[in-house]
Amino acid sequence: MPVVRADLTAPFRDCAVDVVAFNPPYLPEPEDSGWGDWLETAITGGEDGRAVVEPFLDDVGRVLAPGGRVYLLVSTMTGPDEVREYAAVRGLDAREVASESFRFERLLVLELTRA
């Protein structure tokens, strides 16, 4: 199976993808973390944790083939309800299909399909 490294969904044709698995940087940016390294870049998703999630949701519906699915990892610190609402406005239904609790958060996998 081919792997593509790209700016989110930009290089893909309309209706070309059956399944998307996306583990974005989803944590809210800590104030003055002082990390300033690759780890901070890899895990932080801006002030509310959705700086990458929202642009992804803006276009992922375009690339989904009929019956296609998106599996998106988010944290309770990202605001899963806000992610669901944002997806809904873009014509995507979201339902939780998996979760795991940790000390300060719960990680959720949301399955997104066209509404």
List keywords for this structure.
single chain, 115 residues, alpha+beta, Rossmann fold, four-stranded mixed beta sheet, 3 helices, 4 strands, 23% helix
In short:
The chain has 115 residues and is α+β, with helices and mostly antiparallel strands. It is 23% helix and 32% strand.
Task: Please provide a written account of the structure.
By secondary structure, the protein is α+β, with helices and mostly antiparallel strands. The protein has a single domain (17-114), classed as Rossmann fold, CATH 3.40.50.150. Helices cover 23% and strands 32% of the residues. It contains three helices and four strands. It has helices at residues 38-43, 53-63, 80-89, and strands at residues 17-22, 64-75, 92-101, 106-114. It has a four-stranded mixed beta sheet with strand order 1-2-4-3. Strand 3 and strand 4 form a beta hairpin.
Could you give the distance between the termini? 28 Å
Number of domains: 1
Strand element count: 4
Main pleated sheet: 4 strands, mixed
Average pLDDT, to the nearest integer? 90
Estimated structural class: alpha+beta
Strand order of the largest sheet: 1-2-4-3
Which oligomeric state applies? Answer: single chain
